[in-house]
User: What shape does this take?
Amino acid sequence: MKNDSKTKNRRGKLRARTAYHEAGHAAVAFHYGWPVWLCTINPATIAPIYAMSSGKRVRLNDPGDAIGFTKHYDPCYPTQIRGSLYAGNIANVERSVTVGFAGLAAEVRFDPSCEKDAKGRACGDFENVETTLRGRFGSFLPDSVEETKNRCRARAERLINRGAVWRAVQKIAQALLEKETLTEPDIEAICAAMPATIRGQK
Ligand SMILES: [Zn+2]
Assistant: This one.
């Protein structure tokens, strides 16, 4: 019985962390003016997510796991657009990477004690960032991949720490904990109540 409640507690805590993580992606994407189509912490709605870890393909989200998913507009990833079209708009590549780091930044702000563990859980995000920077747009970067990554990661942390953005994160996370899945109108409604400073800044 004791173990049961411990497991339940752990699950509840992970669920809250996941809500903040996804809310971080959502709020920063929204901040860039990108529609957020879906934000969920309901594992049943999430397709299997895989990542490479030490050369092995591992599934990140076992059924029942507290791993969420956020799907938003990303100007770097419309279908069939070649990287070369973005040669003049590296800012969008950096925004995409910044949104990628925003989940971890929000999760760690919510619970600073979980930083190491959170990094492990965010390895799908790290994988996406690598794909964006090395695979697709690497040859257009003005700085090295590492410098770009560090800059975007610092920017994600700064944004998450901005008052209006953090308040949006808290509201989105709260709504996720209540409803599990939010769609574009839900996110719009939550963020519309926020000060104008959350939308469309750099
Ligand atoms: Zn994430």
User: Anything to note?
Assistant: The domain at 2-198 is CATH 1.20.58.760 (Methane Monooxygenase Hydroxylase; Chain G, domain 1). The chain has seven helices and five strands.
